[in-house]
Amino acid sequence: MTKSRRLAYLIAGLLAFPAGAAVGAAPAGVPPKDEPGPTERTFTIEDAVAVALKNDSRRLSAEQDLIIAGARVTEAKLVFLPEFGLQASATKFDARYPFSLSQEFRNILLFPGSSENIYSGRGYMHFPIYEGGRSVNTLRLAQAALKQAQSNYESVKMEVVLAVKEAFYRLMQAQERSAALDEGRAAAESAANNPRLDVWESIEAEALLAQVRIRASEAGRDLALARLAFLKALNLELDTAFHVLGRLEPRPVEVNARKWGLWAIELRPELQSETYKAEMDAIAVNLAISRRNPTLFLAGDYEVTAQRFPLRNNNWDFGVGIKIPFTYDFFTKLRQKRAEQRQGQLKREALQDQVRLEVSQACQSLEYWQHELALREAQYRRVARLYEAVPAGAGPGLARLKALLSVLELRLSFLTSVTEHTLARALLERAVGRDLAP
């Protein structure tokens, strides 16, 4: 086979990128035609997201916050139930003067000359009927905290999904780029060995070949780093053997910054969390006010006490009581809670502005890459068709090499636009707080 025909075959392989097709994903770190090893794990984007959500420590921690918040709601509900209990005691004493036992033993009176032992059993009940709204507000506070924990959990999930998507698509870009540059280096090596080149053309061809080799080497290093970043995003061991399956396929969408900005204000879990925080601040103010309200409660006891068994002497009581608190720091606490409420309001307004800014920036980025993607694809297809239309032996070898490298640059530029468009869409979905319609 002649060198010119071999060069033509290599060029044909380099340009074998059908018009209108998406950028395919070759297995990361292995040639696209190789089959995965028996111990390799295969990841699609859905698989990667599922594994990351399962392993991510932030999501697991947020899940525990949900459990804690749910338990606190249960505790706040139990306050509305009466408290029942049993108490039993056995005391040995020596009395020279009348005295009473300590409060823990119900202040039982003891006298000299009596038996040295006394036994007591007691059942009691305590039920707060009215606590000035403190119990109700405590329950409302716990319920709002549960909703806030749920919003924080959703926010963490969205952050994990965005990180996995970025790592996944950057890995696909790195492996496509590495494969393209490896093909370009092989074609450049064949062209540089063309015997028809004069001495100056040979020097220039060798310089071009060196540049392609350097870029191919850098692409290989970037691929290795992208693989590590992908494993880190999934919280897997860094020596895990794997490959990814998928397509870098652009999905254009009609940009509507105003509509998506309104969606973000309603859907972003961070803003929902701040809304619940505002509710909690308002409840905290009510709790501070309720500290000066009286408490009304019911209490009862049934007790048997004697100095020997069986215990036959019994007493019982049942009463209604009221507690009126006098707090010295009432106004201090109230000012503190109102200041915290105002602080939360300012933070919420700042977060709303930040969300609107993120949506606007994501919309501009997506709009730019949608426009740039169409232009770069058209340029690449047009130049690639023109190159393929040139006969294999036409023109000097150095000019063909330069044209080949120009087509390679356009291919890499198109690949970059596809990747950036895909990531811009993922970033916009994160900014809005929901997936966009295809």
Measured between the Cα atoms of the first and last residue, the distance is 49 Å
Beta percentage is 5-15%
Contiguous low-pLDDT stretches (5 residues minimum) are 1-35
The CATH level-2 architecture is identified as Up-down Bundle
How many distinct domains?
Answer: 1
Spatial order of strands in the largest sheet:
3-6-9-10
Give a short account of the largest sheet: 4 strands, antiparallel
CATH class, named Mainly Alpha
Order of helices and strands: HEEHHEEEEHHEEHHEEHH
Looking at this structure, what is the CATH superfamily? Outer membrane efflux proteins (OEP)
The proportion of residues forming helix, as a percent range, comes to 55-70%
Number of helices: 9
Q: In total, how many beta strands? A: 10
Please tell me the overall pLDDT. 83
- CATH topology value: Outer membrane efflux proteins (OEP)
In brief:
It is elongated, with a radius of gyration of 38 Å. It has helices spanning 3-14, 45-55, 57-78, 134-192, 199-233, 257-267, 269-290, 330-389, 397-432; strands at residues 23-24, 41-43, 83-92, 99-100, 109-110, 117-130, 242-244, 247-248, 295-306, 314-323.
Write up this protein:
- The protein has 438 residues and is of the alpha+beta class.
- It has a single domain, classed as Outer membrane efflux proteins (OEP) (Up-down Bundle), CATH 1.20.1600.10.
- It has nine helices and ten strands.
- The chain has helices at residues 3-14, 45-55, 57-78, 134-192, 199-233, 257-267, 269-290, 330-389, 397-432, and strands at 23-24, 41-43, 83-92, 99-100, 109-110, 117-130, 242-244, 247-248, 295-306, 314-323.
- Strands 3-6-9-10 form a four-stranded antiparallel β-sheet, with no helix packed on it. A two-stranded antiparallel sheet has the order 1-8. Strands 2-7 form a two-stranded parallel ribbon.
- Helix 2 (45-55) crosses helix 4, helix 5 runs parallel beside helix 9 and helix 6 crosses helix 8 (330-389).
- The two termini are 49 Å apart.
